[in-house]
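One-letter codes give the sequence; the fold follows as tokens. Both lines appear below.
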Amino acid sequence: MSQSLPTNAEAQLSGLLGLRRPVETPEQLIHGDLTGNVLFHPNQSPTVIDFSPYWRPADYADAIVVADGLLYHGAGSELVDTFLTGYQRLQMLVRALIFRLVTLIVWKGPDQEVPEDELTRFARVTHLVKMFERRILTENASAIQETGRP
């Protein structure tokens, strides 16, 4: 890890990086920061503001919203269960969590510690991701045994 990385964030970032696996998903133009950037009014269509263009897989935009919901808006494991319809989406969520943690580290500055409550949030969500990864791998192994195909 880089020497400018806060020591209290090294383990969390390393754990998330260790969850990354290769993906083969087409990329396209997406809004990379939808959470908090959609205005709602009861008599009008939702309006997207503050467009943050990213060239990523389409599921990455959803994964950022899911990560934000889990980290900062009180969403529970049912959100992960709804979002994770396959291994590619799990990997998008891993990448979204890495993005959010690295962004937090950069905002804090090179010699600043990341607040413990932030690291606790990331640890809780990382644990959820690991649980769902085991479930997806178990389901895929069962499908391969039954059909000979994933």
In short: The first helix runs from residue 7 to 17. The chain has a mean pLDDT of 87. The helical segments are 7-17, 58-72, 77-83, 87-108, 116-147.
